[in-house]
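Researcher: First entry.
Model:
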Amino acid sequence: MRLTKTLSVVAPVVLALGLAACSGGGDDGGSGSTAAKPTNCTNKIVKEDAPRVLVWAWYPNMAKVVDNFNNQHTDVQVCWTNAGQGQDEYSKFQTAVSAKKGAPDVVMLEADQLVGFEIQDALVDLSPYGANDVKKNFSEGAWKDVSQGDKVYAAPIDGGPMALIYRTDVFAKYGITKPPATWAEYAADAAKVKAAGGPPFGDFASNVPAVTTALMIQKGATPFQYDLADKQNIGIKVDDQATKDVLNYWADLSTKKQIGKEDQFTTDYVAGMVGGKYATYVSAAWAPGYLTGAGVGNGSSKGKFAVAPLPQWDAASPVSVNWGGSAFAVTSQASDKAAAAKVALGLYADEASLTDGWKTQTIFPLNQSVLKSDEFINAKVDFFNGQTANKDIYIPAENAYKGAVYSPFTVYYYAQLQAQIVKLNAGQTTGDKAATDLQNALVTYAKSQGFTVK
């Protein structure tokens, strides 16, 4: 889900992830999907005498998705409310986890936030409730992002395989005849456009550290090693050569003013996208929907965007990476976990909801029933002037994605990386020093939270 990719990063850090806090919620009531029926539902309940499962989610088309589910089920009904997007919802959920009451039965979480709640025993393993029955519907990477060993903590819905969006008019004006296939070609094109007096080729925004992290992983970095079966120990490695190379690469382009350093998802940034201020946008499969909703691709910018595979650090060893993606998890406070699991696994999994999701560009669906459908594969994307972006770019990227290992303190990590990117853009540090300082900060923090750093 698109907008929250930034909201969950730049919001104030809200953490309760020390090992002393790992007691979780238990079965002490929560919203009470059957013990006390929730009544503050945004949607209509179709079967009044059926158990109700309280769901927190922010997808724009949730009203339609919930109605689809409720109309198809007589044994359970969804009571949906929007508790906020991204960090707003996470803060409320964390408060409920800490208080051991007030949580929903099912909560929408981005993939990189799952471990932080899993470590608090705030989420339920769905494998006893049929999760593995639907495993075949998802790629290896999508499933890995919601799993820990043989345990499954959420049902994947939306993903963000990354690619390179570019302005065809800017490329044509400055003689860029094809999109760069490698980051070396990207840097050469950025220098060429700058020398000709053109706009920034892209940007190194501090408020999207998830993008930088993805490119670090693409280069071969493994920022974290963590297994929920061994809560005490964590591996942290962000001062490796791959991370240093990535930070130095973008800092160099920024210092030479070949790219910008503006925050993304702001009014000014969107205006720049409309006006051709940036030649490229390194983003994910949900971006066309976000940009269209923000007014990009209409009026003077209509028909001027195309998409290409994400440039590679090593063309001989391509790596697919992901930005964003969200899933439905069952909380430990759900009193009827079987009913809640039926909702988590079945909500946004029916054909009508998935079709509405991708056609309205609300989600990039992870369900293989969509990814393998002729209609989705051959869809001509209006934002890309009729390009078959799903078939040519996004589906191959999603199917090649192998998943990632996230830390149990993602928000803190993102805040520290964001601070280093600000310094890099200001010329106040180098990529090598930024990586070392980031390593030291994360190790110190992890130890203060009770972890043993391997």
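Researcher: Second entry.
Model:
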Amino acid sequence: MKRRRILAAATALVAASGLVACSSDGDGGGTDASNCTNKITKTDLPVVTMWAWYPNMQLVVDNFNKQNTEVQVCWTNVGQGGDEYDKFQTAISAGTGAPDVIMIEMDRIPNFQIQNAIVDIKKYGFDAVKANYSEGSWKDVSVGDAVYGVPVDGGPMGMIYRKDIFDKYGITPPKTWPEYEQAAQKVKDAGGPQFGDLGANVPAVMMALQIQKGASPFAYDPAQPKSIGVKMNDQGSKDVLDYWGGLAKKGLVGTQDQFTPEYISGVINGKYATYISAAWAPGYLTGAGVGQGQDTGKFAVAPLPQWDTANPVQVNWGGSSFAVTKQAKKPELAAKAAYGLYADKESLTDGWTNQVIFPLNLTALNSPEFVDLKVKFFGGQQANKEVYVPASNAYKGMTYSPFGQYYFDAMTKQISEVIKGSVTGSQAADRLQEDVAKYAKEQGFTVQ
């Protein structure tokens, strides 16, 4: 799920036929279980359909079905990220063909909420599970006061770094962004590698870093569905774009698109001293071949540098949830599945031990086994205890917009212009404000 953060979820319509692996039998959540990827053994119970792409979803669904005596889940993987969203958009337009429960990345929830495609699940057992997740996690799956998803995994951010490079140039992990620039300059002056990377294709990182500086890109309340606050060019947003643009201009950081073979090759070969990323990064990097062979044991992680160490702000990159769709005939049963999937100890443990998810369920997040884990990728460092769990617990959540993909695309365009040197960071923020506000008005919003 992590590598799909950079995918564009276009909403082009395609033929609705063949998209749903479990067909409804009209029993309010019942299905033809013969078309499920998983095998349902409790055939006397009602069944809800589900789309999800977690790598260990087969185990997760089997665990839920084995333990549950009220409902069973018929699961299908119809594609990852944008592929699934395209199919869901088709079902929304057709008014049929959607599953009862669907995996949705948190930043996409408002897009489907504004189309009335997903259900507020607060009245379907929220109070019983509310304490299982942090306030920030719930905010990320909420629109206004309504809750549209059950949080599963997240991406509290930190600074991954090469211990060998830091040791060679006498660098200690910078605690502030000014210290980060000073360290980068020291390494460059000594003939060392670039200190990090400004990738235009990871706009969610820039958004998170701007939020850390006090930005609030969007203000949206479904009680006023045609009004939205758009604030792309506040001083904090400009400061962060100017900061990273300045690092790139001085040659202190690279400008390679991330999640590419070229970027990974650079990581493996020590081209970058740091990687500003999220808690899911060790799993992604391991899968990409980083931290193996000659790279083994060379990586460590430190807390994300701050602008004000007296008032630290933790931010997040990525995260997914289970939502109940409007087409579910028995939303209370679908909600029971959404709340219960990936919530049992066996599934959660399998998820974090195999680096599939960074769990948001507090049963796992605060368990001694998870907190005290010696992470192999980091040479046995207790990364969860030192960095990721404190960051997750301190994260306050954020407000996403109903047109987040357009915003990310527009941000990518402006970061590219900063990288080319055609605009300053402040100018890019002004252009982004004009672009996104114009788009919002074209979509019928009153921009505040």
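Model: Note on the second entry: The chain is about 40% helix and 15% strand.
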